[in-house]
Design goal:
alpha/beta, UDP-N-acetylmuramoyl-L-alanine:D-glutamate ligase, 2 domains, ten-stranded mixed beta sheet, seven-stranded parallel beta sheet, 18 helices, 19 strands, 15% strand, elongated, binds ligand NPW, binds adenosine-5'-diphosphate, binds potassium ion
Length: 514
Amino acid sequence: MTKEQVIVTAAQMRDIEGRIFAAGMPVAALMEKVAGLISDSFARRRQRLQAIIPQGQRVGILVGPGHNGGDALVVARELHFRGYQVWIYQPFPKLKELTSQHFQYAQSLGIPCFQELDKLPNCDFLIDGLFGFGLEREITDTFAAAINYFNDWNKPIFSIDLPSGLHTDTGEVLGTAIRATHTFCLGLWKQGLLQEQALEYIGQAELIDFDIPLADIHAVLGEVPKIKRITKTTVIQTLPLPRSPITHKYKAGHLLLICGSKRYAGGAILTGLGARASGIGMLSIAVPESIKPLLVSHLPEALIIGCPETETGAISNLELPEKTDLSSFTAIACGPGLTKDATPIVEQVINSEVPLILDADALNIVAQLGTISTLQKRQTTTVLTPHTGEFHRLFPDINYTDRVKAVQTAASQTGAVVLLKGARTAISNPQGVVWINSESTPALARGGSGDVLTGLMGGLLAQVVNKQVNIEDVVATAAWWHSQAGILAAAERTELGVDAFTLTQYLMRVLLDI
Ligand SMILES: NC(=O)C1=CN([C@@H]2O[C@H](COP(=O)(O)OP(=O)(O)OC[C@H]3O[C@@H](n4cnc5c(N)ncnc54)[C@H](OP(=O)(O)O)[C@@H]3O)[C@@H](O)[C@H]2O)[C@@H](O)CC1
Ligand SMILES: Nc1ncnc2c1ncn2[C@@H]1O[C@H](COP(=O)(O)OP(=O)(O)O)[C@@H](O)[C@H]1O
Ligand SMILES: [K+]
């Protein structure tokens, strides 16, 4: 486990912090260290912003009553000595002791301090140290008004630990919250920063590592924490790289994709292209007979299985080649573009004993058949990849405001690994081990990008399923890879330039970078 993978709640962070202090680290020394690191990072970022804000020397520091405010005051002092024009806004009648001492010292240095909004001078940046992980109740009255006022300034805001007003664990807005352009998360990632509802407030998030001993993290979270961020480390451990020099095509997985209909032919192509990018040894794609020529022209390396079709152009029954049955495949991915008319096909694959990914229409069909009763029958690996709408159809009784809890419940009820898609995709296995994909791009919010993910994941699963890997690690690796391709593509082509086909062309580039 690396520190970049760790995710903590406020209570866990407090316990970890408590152990450090109990071991002898003085609170004031830790605050100095943290604030020094923040000041360095702020100065580096400000330099990068200089092209946009040429003068950029005037900094307003927002100070709260607790140690988040203390951090901010040390940053104020540091920036003052580095030649910035600093002022402080501190409206609270009572401060924690250490914070109060730093406030007194800042005043003695002649840094202007204000309690009222209408007296504040102009500035180029704001640093937000109003509340950190100590915020547990709604912000109201003067303090809420102040936050809204600063948001309206439209200046870059750098938040210390998390944007003031966000709940540390759920990411929900407690009354109102600072809309930061940048967040310096201190020590370990707070769970709230990885929740979708917090995203509009965080801006760019950066972890400030202040050398928390791993032993303290393990003591509080256990040797293997349950909820983690997906990072390159997991991905490198999971990818089927390097390949064995003596492998052959049948050893590198045989994936069966079941997808597409006359109406949704493109979905089948995108799923196939996603699978192609995974490096799969053998790829078979079952589609309705009438779209077979189209698939052949896009994926000449794949075995396209043309199946009999319904009047509506959906697959009516799986007609596999001679001497082949479902057990001939190492994995099956089923769903994109199928339409609901393919119900018998979905029932058939669910009854097989092959590792199975269900997506899109296959999920809607499962919901109609009865999610839990249908999936509990399965003896082998099942992966479900719903977006929020599909999730709701599958699990109408699960509240998904806390997406982490929702995905854990869904996985435990069905015995499947569940991936809940979104801006911050969350993945859980039935035992509640969760991965959160914390780097992505809204460029992916386009029809067809989920089909690419299903193909990619199917291809990975088929290659590694018989090796000693956790299925949730494979699913997480596919999600990470897919998002990184989106990020890379958006960097070169803007957030509007990443259609699903283009996305498939960037998948391989991600691997070159690792
Ligand atoms: N973890 C670490 O290792 C390190 C942590 N560090 C820093 O400490 C921060 C945590 O500090 P913290 O515990 O003092 O809490 P913080 O978030 O500053 O604010 C709580 C204060 O706000 C008040 N308050 C609460 N709600 C309110 C409301 N709605 N409206 C008005 N007031 C409200 C509450 O007062 P009370 O509840 O008593 O009224 C309390 O005084 C952390 O985020 C990080 O920046 C670093 O310095 C070093 C390394
Ligand atoms: N705002 C966003 N930020 C990051 N990723 C997103 C965002 N919106 C959607 N995505 C990703 O894009 C993909 C969309 O999948 P899905 O909704 O199944 O699309 P489709 O069914 O059209 O292929 C998912 O992987 C999802 O996580
Ligand atoms: K803050």
